Amino acid sequence: MTTPTNPRLRYVYAVCRPFDGVLPEGAAGIAGDPPRLLHHDDLVAVVGSVPAEEFDEGPLRARLEDLDWLADTARGHDAVLAALTTVTSPLPLRLATVCRDDSGVRRLLQEGHDRFVRALDRLDGRVEWGVKVYAEQVADAPAPAPREPVSAGAAGAAGSGRDYLRRRLRERNGREDGMRRADAVARALHERLSGHAEAAALHQPQDPRLAGGAAGVNVLNAAYLVGRDRSEAFVGLVGESSGDGVRVELTGPWAPYSFAGIAEEDPV
Length: 268
Description:
The protein is of the alpha+beta class. It has helices spanning 52-55, 57-63, 67-85, 102-111, 113-123, 154-196, 231-239, and strands spanning 8-16, 36-40, 43-51, 91-92, 98-99, 126-135, 199-202, 217-227, 246-254.
């Protein structure tokens, strides 16, 4: 028996229940391989075929250090989940969940069956919405250190120094006021949205370098699990919250990435 020159592995995007219809067109999948449905008892795995030279254990460890490769893989993963979310309520699996072959995928479903079923019960009919709150700040213009004017004496230099310090103090006080306003908005908004959602997850504030050039300081980075039938009202609540110096950003609806671990919780 010959070994294939370009062996392929099974990339598992998500687990879901059987559903009518097919995956929407346009979800090209990672490595250009369209995803397919692999049925096993009462569960379905959404899988694709990926090259072993990239996704086998050793190469994958190295690839995960390549930010460009990681971003491309995450985009492909997200595109499949977004398409899947339009037709069912999936349980997203971790990025780069890979099995050797279809038999390995079936073992994954079999061994995790009860955990997957419990999670799907809790996620059925629900989507994730993301909400970020920013304290908007205008970048300070570079302020040169005070220096003595050419034709001014000591009194002029002292006045220039005082003016400089007053300006810097006003700037600092303005930043602190903006942060306090944004923090108050974030706290009130999170409490209101949590009351409307079925679950909430607080993430670390986003690093400004990863915010795509968005102005401001991220003071709230949260995800909310919301019933599809309550999403319109949820969006309305978010829209009421922006104000002077505070920007609120809403994203979604997504597959419930932030709540995939809900399967590990005790059933209620």
